[in-house]
Write a structure and sequence with these properties.
- This protein is mainly alpha-helical.
- The chain has one domain: MetI-like (MetI-like fold), CATH 1.10.3720.
- 82% of the residues lie in helices and 0% in strands.
- It has 9 helices and no strands.
- Helix 1 runs antiparallel to helix 8 and helix 5 packs antiparallel against helix 6.
- 30% of the residues are buried.
- It is a multi-pass membrane protein.
- It comes from Aminobacter anthyllidis.
- GO terms for molecular function: transmembrane transporter activity.
- This is Amino acid ABC transporter permease.
């Protein structure tokens, strides 16, 4: 057993937390970009596009995230693609996040009255201009609370990437625990770090919900 002081454990966990934060940001930004593309297909006038988007969303919402990560990390190399744990983690979480974000934003679009579309048409705007100038800004505004709430879930989901070898907070804590045999201290600190990351976002989401309800 290796001797670690409390501060040694805490310092190593905080150092590992940066990778959890970076992975969360990368997956959220990537998921947002892909999610907008899926949203366009989901609300498209073309039937094939709506069906593709619906199938995409159903696939990533209806299968375990861990299985998706396994397919990225173990499946892609069998097709000839060499992939590192970081890349597999980002890709897996990006596709996972995109499905949920697209559906959240679609609910925002559906919540808008038909008159918003008609107003855009009366101004001579074509479909893309209507989306960019009228529909999407309002849809994004009214779905801020669920988007922030999903970000909390995404941060916690990064812990699953330890299974494919990505050195984030949970994998580092497992290594420290194996060296120190102090599970209560190590995992208690991990829980505390996740709480510090997620609690402010949870409170922010609640404040957004309260603000929206007051309007």
């Amino acid at each position: 057993m290796i001797e670690f002081t409390f501060w040694d454990i805490l310092r190593n966990l905080i150092f590992a937390t940066r990778w959890t934060v970076l992975l969360s940001i990368a997956a959220f930004v990537g998921g947002g970009i892909v999610g907008i593309a899926i949203l366009f297909l989901r609300i498209s006038k073309a039937k094939w596009a709506r069906r593709f988007a619906s199938g995409y969303i159903a696939l990533f919402q209806g299968t375990p995230l861990l299985m998706q990560l396994f397919l990225m990390f173990f499946g892609l190399p069998m097709l000839g693609f060499r992939i590192e744990p970081w890349t597999a983690a980002v890709l897996g979480l990006t596709f996972f996040a995109s499905a949920y974000l697209a559906e959240i934003w679609r609910s925002g679009v559906d919540a808008l009255p038909r008159g918003q579309w008609d107003a855009g048409a009366s101004l001579g705007l074509h479909y893309i201009q209507e989306l960019r100038l009228i529909i999407l800004p309002q849809a994004f505004a009214i779905t801020r609370a669920p988007v922030v709430g999903f970000l909390v879930q995404l941060i916690k989901a990064t812990a699953l990437t330890s299974i494919i070898g990505f050195e984030e907070l949970l994998r580092t804590s497992n290594a420290i625990n194996n060296a120190t045999f102090e599970p209560f201290t190590v995992y208690g600190l991990v829980a505390l770090i996740f709480f510090v990351l997620c609690y402010p976002l949870t409170q922010y989401a609640r404040s957004l919900e309260a603000r929206a309800a007051a309007r």
